[in-house]
Specification:
127 residues; alpha/beta; 5 strands
């Protein structure tokens, strides 16, 4: 998958969230961390899991999706790649706004939150 210049990459799992921007080119991408605060206000909208931890992780996924929706709707994010473990990605998809869906360049169902930007870029290139 190609990563357009200026596009954003959201990397999430059940407890962590990182947002990067491609400050390089499509041919030579370079990820730089950017800040996008999330809140736990969306947690009550998340699906019901079997345990408090599952509910917490679903709430985190919902708050990440909510923050991404807001960034897309305010034109802070135009192109987006979402990378998340399968469970988190599934919860996030339930919360996607139509505008976020339109901004998606791609999705990768994989846990990469503790990986280097080089590993993230390799996963994008191989997707």
């Amino acid at each position: 998958m190609q990563l357009p210049s200026g596009s954003h990459v959201a990397v999430a799992d059940g407890t962590q969230f990182q947002l990067f921007r491609n400050s390089g080119t499509e041919q030579e991408p370079s990820l730089k961390a950017v800040d996008l605060p999330t809140s736990d206000e969306s947690a009550h909208n998340a699906g019901q899991g079997d345990s408090p931890r599952q509910n917490e992780e679903a709430g985190h996924a919902a708050s990440v999706a909510s923050a991404l929706n807001a960034a897309v709707l305010s034109n802070k994010i135009k192109d987006l790649v979402v990378i998340a473990d399968p469970s988190t990605l599934g919860e996030m998809r339930k919360q996607y706004h139509k505008s976020l869906e339109a901004a998606l360049v791609g999705e990768i169902a994989k846990t990469l939150t503790s990986q280097s930007t080089d590993d993230i870029l390799k996963s994008i290139a191989n997707a």
